[in-house]
Amino acid sequence: MNEAMDDKKPTPKKSALGRGLGALLQDSPQKTKNETLIPSHPVAGIYDISLSDIQVNPFQPRTHFDKTALEELAESIKVQGIIQPITVRKLAEGEYQLISGERRFQASKMAGLEKIPAYVRTANDQQMLEMALIENIQRENLNALEIAHSYQRLLAECNLKQEELGDRVGKNRTTVNNYLRLLKLPPDIQAGLRDNRISMGHARALINVDSIDKQLAIFKKVLAEDLSVRKVEELVKSLNQENEEKTERQEPALDPLKKYELGKIQQRLANHFGTKVHLKSDAKSKGEIKIPFHSSEDLNRILEILEII
């Protein structure tokens, strides 16, 4: 009798998952024909869960969902069903919280589904935030501003450094920093980037304009004349050159004796570093020293002289 009952036990079902978030999940139990197996304390696995039992993700990095795209996804779900399960964590019996897959979750509601296939896993709040952010960053349809906000949240709320963040998302530090700089733009330009009225290339060019008023003026010109990224870069470069020339014209002339002394210091620095040095100072004794280098070896040589390495 017992042997007969043992023969009827469902065998575990292997889930063919790819790398990334899915790689963290274990094998899922096989469901019987008439019921969904959701143990009181489930290990990671795939289950059919009622949509009414799932709470939305409070850490959701996406703030904007295209209504038309959602409707198209809902129509696809009516025909094809859910191809890729969502991911949730169990809070209590019959109570789950979304980790990733909110578009599929919302579209399934629109499609009139009662249940949805979901990976169930355990995660604390910080792990959940990190998984949700990284999972969303890796999606191709995430816009540049959403990626920038996600990077910022990973740095601030998950206590990651930029190097660690780059490793997690597969980007170098320069790329991460370029996205973070977008958050310094005024709200109108950020909204234009979010709504795909301008590209990240346009936004990166506008960052180099030192005045918000000028940034907004160029932004409006981009929209009105449909300017290319290259055209905006040329416009910004020309504007910055004009500003530098204007600043130089406004600066009072240096005292001849002071100018002579600066020339001598500049020559001494050039002799010391074995390369041409640019020394600049204004009438208030504020200025800068520029030491050009021509290769990584030349830079290391200068750093050794400065006793930095």
Q: On the 0-100 scale, what is the average pLDDT? A: 76
> What is the gyration radius calculated from CA atoms?
29 Å
Q: What's the arrangement of strands in the largest beta sheet? A: 1-5-3-4-2
Instruction: Tell me which CATH architecture of the largest domain applies here.
Output: Alpha-Beta Complex
Task: Describe the largest sheet.
Answer: 5 strands, mixed
Given this structure, which CATH class of the largest domain is correct? Answer: Alpha Beta
Distance between the termini: 78 Å
Residue share in β-strands: 5-15%
The outline comes out as elongated
Instruction: Count up the domains.
Output: 3
Number of strands: 7
Count of alpha/pi helices: 13
- The low-pLDDT segments are 1-43
Oligomeric state of the chains in view: single chain
Q: How would you explain this protein's 3D organization?
A:
With 309 residues, this protein is an alpha/beta fold. It has three domains: 13-142, Conserved hypothetical protein from pyrococcus furiosus pfu- 392566-001, ParB domain (Alpha-Beta Complex), CATH 3.90.1530; 186-250; 256-305, no CATH class. Helices cover 50% and strands 12% of the residues. The chain contains 13 helices and seven strands. A hairpin with a 2-residue loop joins β3 and β4. α2 packs across α3 (102-110) and α4 (125-137) packs antiparallel against α5. The longest helix is centred in the C-terminal third of the chain and has 22 residues, at 229-250. Residues 47-137 form the ParB-like N-terminal domain. Belongs to the ParB family. GO terms for molecular function: DNA binding.
